[in-house]
């Protein structure tokens, strides 16, 4: 496995063209997709024909330093989901999004915090990142708690995108959290 980043319990790697089934399985769980699509699964052909090719193209665009990374338990190698550390499509490389999507079996084990904390460290010490941001729905208290554990601060409220208006709690909009390199260094 070509490891991108390791934590105490996790190994993150770049996705490959052979990983479509991992993404399809993850996105087929209604609980995982609750705050993204209202629980509707992502169509397998969409994963194979658009999402995975876009993930792979991101590695080319950002020299493998930024993108979406498969997360596996170091003990046993089980796929638990993915983490993201990447800029907006045409955004500056020193302002990146942090995110994650984990299988239900990995919930409540501290993996989202552990993986995110390690990515923040890499972003600020190795990749020249100045600001990291994360967004979620206002009602997604689990993700908001993780952002706060990472010492990210609530920066803004955001409207619900039109394609997410069917999601439970969409009427409350979303939130954006941020942390700068300086804030991270002072934590």
TrEMBL record:
Keywords, ordered alphabetically: Transferase
Record's keyword annotation contains Oxidoreductase: no
A GO molecular-function annotation: acyltransferase activity, transferring groups other than amino-acyl groups
InterPro entries: Acyl_CoA_acyltransferase, GNAT_dom, N-acetyltransferase
Annotated SUPFAM superfamilies: Acyl-CoA N-acyltransferases (Nat)
Statement: the UniProt record of this protein carries the keyword Transferase: yes
Membrane-crossing segments per the record: none
Residue intervals of the N-acetyltransferase domain: 10-182
Stated name of the protein: GNAT family N-acetyltransferase
Organism, as annotated: Streptomyces monashensis
């Amino acid at each position: 496995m070509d490891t991108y980043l390791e934590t105490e319990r996790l190994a993150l790697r770049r996705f490959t063209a052979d990983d479509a089934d991992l993404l399809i399985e993850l996105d087929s769980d209604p609980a995982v997709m609750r705050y993204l699509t209202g629980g509707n699964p992502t169509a397998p052909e969409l994963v194979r024909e658009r999402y995975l090719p876009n993930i792979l193209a991101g590695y080319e665009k950002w020299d493998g330093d930024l993108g979406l990374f498969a997360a596996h338990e170091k003990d046993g190698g089980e796929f638990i989901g993915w983490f993201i550390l990447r800029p907006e499509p045409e955004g500056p490389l020193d302002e990146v999004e942090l995110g994650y999507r984990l299988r239900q079996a990995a919930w409540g084990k501290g993996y989202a915090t552990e993986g995110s904390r390690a990515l923040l460290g890499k972003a600020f010490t190795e990749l020249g990142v100045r600001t990291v941001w994360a967004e979620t729905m206002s009602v997604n208290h689990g993700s908001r708690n993780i952002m706060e554990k990472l010492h990210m601060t609530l920066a803004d409220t955001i409207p619900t995108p039109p394609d997410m208006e069917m999601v439970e709690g969409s009427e409350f909009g979303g939130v954006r959290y941020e942390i700068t390199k300086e804030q991270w260094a002072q934590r």
